[in-house]
Amino acid sequence: MTQEAIISALQNGSLNSYQIENMTGIPRLHIVAACKHLFRKKKITVEKVKMGRSWICKYTLEPHMVEVKKVEEARDFLTPFDIRNAKGIFTKAEYASMNNQAIRLFGRKPTNEITNNQYI
Fold first, then answer.
1. Which residues pair with 61 in a beta bridge?
2. Which of 22, 38, 50, 94 could form a disulfide with 90 if both were Cys (CB 3.0 to 4.6 A apart)?
3. Distance from CA of residue 54 to its chain's centroid?
4. For residue 88, how many other CB atoms are within 10 A of its CB?
């Protein structure tokens, strides 16, 4: 599951672990472990890049892993109800604080938990 999410995130170009974490919501530790495994299987390439004072890895898919997509129909970015424009508007910490507040007000309801799920 993690490897599939990483491969689909890297289809549009190279990304670092911070960008992959923001796109998929997977913790960075899991992303790095999965990328090491994909690198050993020769599915991605890894390049070290300096960001500020630290070095981070930039991941790119191998050419044989890139899927050629057919052209998608044009999206209307002005329509807020178009499901293809859906994205999270709050940070992970904001969702956590909203969830804690909802639990305090309404009690514990495990089925109605407020999360940052991007699965639409």
1. 44
2. 94
3. 22
4. 14
Model's pTM, two decimal places? 0.54
Extract the tokens encoding 61. 């898919």
**Can you tell me the distance from the alpha carbon of 6 to that of 38, in angstroms, rounded to the nearest whole number?**
10
- Sheet of 15-16: strands edge to edge? 15-16, 54-61, 44-51
pLDDT of residue 120: 45
User: Which pLDDT score is estimated for 24?
Assistant: 87
Find the helix packing angle between 2-9 and 17-24, rounded to 10°.
110
pLDDT along the chain (120 residues), means of 10: 87 89 90 93 92 91 81 63 62 78 74 57
